[in-house]
Every structure is written in structure tokens, then in C-alpha cells.
Amino acid sequence: MRIRHLEWDRLIAILLISPSIFAIAIFVYAFIGWTGWASVLKWNDMMPLQPLGSFENIKILPPKAPFAGLDNYIRLLTVDQRFRIDLWNTLVFTSLFIAACLIVGLLLAVLLDQKIRGEGVFRGIFLFPMSVSFIVTGVVWKWVLTPGTEQTGAVGINQLFEGVGLGFLKNGWYTDPKIGIMAVVIAATWQMSGYVMAIYLAGLRAIPEDLREAARVDGANEFQVFQHIILPLLQPVTLSAVIILGHISLKIFDLIYSMTGPGAGFSTDVPALYMLITVYQGNHFARGAAIAIILLVLVSVLVVPYLIYNARTEVEQ
After folding, report:
1. Prediction pTM value
2. pLDDT tier at 55 (50, 70, 90 boundaries)?
3. Nearest Cα to Cα of residue 160 among 150, 146, 149, 174
4. Whose CB among 220, 223, 263, 285 lies 3.0–4.6 Å from 267's, allowing a Cys bridge?
């Protein structure tokens, strides 16, 4: 009787999750497969779509386009200079964005861990930017970092620098090809550093106070306690933050779209933005699909090893 009850519970569990499995199979993996197939075609204009069987009214199948193999990928990686610039911009943005968020987030978490008065208020203030979409963040920071012109004079943050006697800090921000990507990093760090602060603060609160007291009794000062006790115990938190921030930065689109666009000399261009322009303005659908697959591979290279590491850690525990 107990065995039948367990089988019935298992059947109910399968029925409950089957709609989600079915939806994921279609709207995630099937579309990934469709995009992968489109990326190996020579699909560069609005060709008629190819119906299949009883699905003649569902126009989502690849067109009657010749097979191109890996030509689209080879062109992107060897011939297309803009795409190579985009990959470099992504590398620079990812490195600076992750480093800035980790430093700022850890600093804020350490300050809040001192049991200061009004901690809840400060925690809410630091977390507030995360509740704003990247589109809104991009628009606001575009206003803030607008450099101004000779006719209007300094505006935004340049006007603030000029007013407090720090005029030497004025620059073109996102209009300057040399530091355009830095302006985007500033905006992205403002939005996500509060999230990093929250997970670091949770990690700090999980460290037993006995370990810190034992180190102090042994003669360690506060810096040594932080260096040899706290930082090593925060390594799993840091790894999780790097993975989350890394996958956000690799597929960043909305912030750059609303804030800078491709930028002067493609200084702030990224693969996701180039994919949109390639598909919807250039009608190079196969090349856009190839960019999408490359982005998927980049994100997978970052995320999949982390998932494997987590799975092995759970098995060992």
C-alpha cells in the first residue's frame, strides 16, 4: 500500500512539473536549436519560409536558403572588424564591471556589518538601484554624464565638477571614444553593487564570531582577521557574485542601447547590440543568429563549469 502511495505521489509530481518542462523544451531548447540551424544558412533577406506538414500556418521554420556551414562564424571572427571590436569591448566591460562591483559591494557590506545605526535604511538605499531596470539606468546616467557643448556650457556631472573647483575632471564621458566604455561601467556598477553588497553582507553575518575572537586572542589585528579569516570564508560568495555579474555583462544590451548606442567609433558597441542591428536593420538573419550562438557559448563557458562545481560540492557534502 505504501509503494502505491509513493508511486501516486511521484505521478502527481511529474504531472505538476510537466507543463514547465514542456514550455522550456519548446521556448528555450527548441528555439536555441532553430537559431543554431539558421546560423549555418545563407539567409540575408526576407525569403519565403518553408512550411512543414500540418504546420503550414506556423511560419517559424527556417527559410528556403542555401546551406552555408560555418561561413557566418568565420566571417564574424576573421573578417568582421566591428564584431572583433565588440568582443574586446565586452572583455573590457566585463573585467571592469566585475572588479568594481566586487570592491564597492564588499566595502559597503563591511561598513554595514559594523552594526551602525540606521542599517536598514542604508541597506535599502544601497539596494534601491537594483529595483530599476537597465533601460531607466541608462537614460538617467546619460543625463548625468552628458558633457555639454560650447554653446550650452558644462552640464551634468561636468557642471558639478566645475562648480566645486574640480574642472580638471571634466571630460566627454560616453562621447569620448577612449573612455566611452568607462561611462557604461559606472552606470552598471551603480545598479548592481548593491546586490553584491547584500550577498556579501549575508556571507559576513554567517561567519561565526568565535572565529574572529579566536584570531584576536592569538594576536591578530582587525586587518589580519579580515585577510586570513573573513576573505577566505567569503570565497564561495565571491565566486557566485562573479558568475552572476559575468553572465549579465556578457549579454548586456538594454543599458548600452538606452545610454550610448554603438558609441563613437563603436567604442561602446557590444555583440548583443550588433545582433539587433544586423538582424532588424541589415536583414542579415543568419549572421545575427551566429552572433546569438556565440553569445550563448560565451555565457555557457562561464556558467556551466560553475554548475558542475556546485553539483560536485553537493555530492561531496
Report:
1. 0.86
2. very low
3. 146
4. 263
